[in-house]
Amino acid sequence: VQPAMLGLWSLLLLWGLATPCQGLLETVGTLARIDKDELGKAIQNSLVGGPILQNVLGSVTAVNQGLLGSGGLLGGGGLLGHGGVFGVVEELSGLKIEELTLPKESLKLLPGFGVQLNLHTKVGMHCSGWPAEVKRDVRVHWVSARGGMPPLISSCCSTLLGPHQAWFLGLLPTPLFGVVEQMLFKVLPGLLCPVVDSVLGVVNELLGTVLGLVPLGALGSLEFSLATLPLISNQYIELDINPIVKSVAGDIIDFPKSPAPAKVPPKEDHTSQVTVPLYLFNTMFGLLQTNGALDMDITPELVPSDVPLTTTDLAALLPEALGKLPLHQHLLLSLRVKEAPTVTLNNKKALVSLPANIHVLSYVPQGTPESLLELNSVMTLRAQLTPSATKLHISLCLERLSVKVASSFTYAFDESRLEEWLSHVVRVVYAPKLNVALDVGIPLPKVLNISFSSSVLEIIENAVVLTVPS
């Protein structure tokens, strides 16, 4: 028995008529660059083991199961097996199907045009020693979709025969010619074309996962939508994704954008890339500030014993200004952030500038606190950025703190005396509280379910770039 030659299903995915820009992110969106290898691997994995294609084919790996098994197309009583429609054709003409294999993909990106996806399969047909070659020809096109990834659907799925097969059909008796022709051009496409639709479903689902709504805990949610049509280069697909931040009530949060675009570095071959814009960092900290998550009352119960937080400690720092302050009383530091923090991404560093009003009061657990001192401070915190599978996590530590007196005193004093004391309190008590609030992280778009936990992180001007090898 001679096996048939490889058939070919060719899908031309028309994706847009532009090529990616030269690495300049003009908008505030998140830029995702999907490597060709990553897309091909995801499609092939879905074809082999994914549930979408198995809904059509069933389990083809188990013996006597699925499309090719005893209960499938080639089994006894199956459409192509003994007792089926094609079984009748075999009895009359000797033409029979002996092998039908799963498709294997090969992917090619066409810059400025689209994506060509070839699905190779083998249909083993035999008649009097002649192998039969069948070619699947499929055309697909975009269907417009508002606010989401435009899906692909097939517009044509036809059967083509090679010259030897056409010559072979011409030798068949007229009655058999009609039966075989109907099988090849009507029955067989009716069986195999749904597999093509399943492949399109795989592609649409894989790309569609980039978009969607991600909860941000008590802060609200982040929704990813497609800002423009996908763009094609010879190695990757570029998606300009618009991140929309919403409050818990569903209102769109719109914080100031960066005045300068981010110059995204070129993507290396065989890697995928996601760029997180400065806008998302500023929006995240802006949400924390408006929700009061950055405010804190630092009381003696919250600080370790080695943190000086008494009137005795304060009087030692400012003896002239505070005069005859009662000693050995506990202090309360009321810290309020009344303006949105400013995030700076540049020179491989991420810094957060946090303006805060610090009110120093004498602390009486059962009484009314007495105001002693009011300060305007600016805390500069260094951000440690750590990617996980689906998020970019932020951890802060104090780099420096500066203060200015907001209330008036009879005696002038040097505010720098307070900076070391307050810096110690911020490092030990306030920064850990901030990091708990930041535990929600910045969600990353689901690019073909790629895990970013092992990505290489690079801080550039006004953006953070995560690069994952394919």
Automatic annotation (TrEMBL):
InterPro entries: Bactericidal_perm-incr_a/b_dom, BPI_fold-BPI/LBP, Lipid-bd_serum_glycop_C, Lipid-bd_serum_glycop_N. Belongs to the BPI/LBP/Plunc superfamily. BPI/LBP family. Residues 33-269 form the Lipid-binding serum glycoprotein N-terminal domain. The keyword Signal applies. GO terms for cellular component: cytoplasm; extracellular region. It comes from Cercocebus atys (Sooty mangabey). Keywords: Disulfide bond, Glycoprotein, Secreted, Signal. Residues 268-468 form the Lipid-binding serum glycoprotein C-terminal domain. The keyword Nucleus does not apply. This is BPI fold-containing family B member 3. Residues 1-23 form the signal peptide. It is found in: Secreted. Coiled coil: none annotated. May have the capacity to recognize and bind specific classes of odorants. May act as a carrier molecule, transporting odorants across the mucus layer to access receptor sites. May serve as a primary defense mechanism by recognizing and removing potentially harmful odorants or pathogenic microorganisms from the mucosa or clearing excess odorant from mucus to enable new odorant stimuli to be received. GO terms for molecular function: lipid binding.
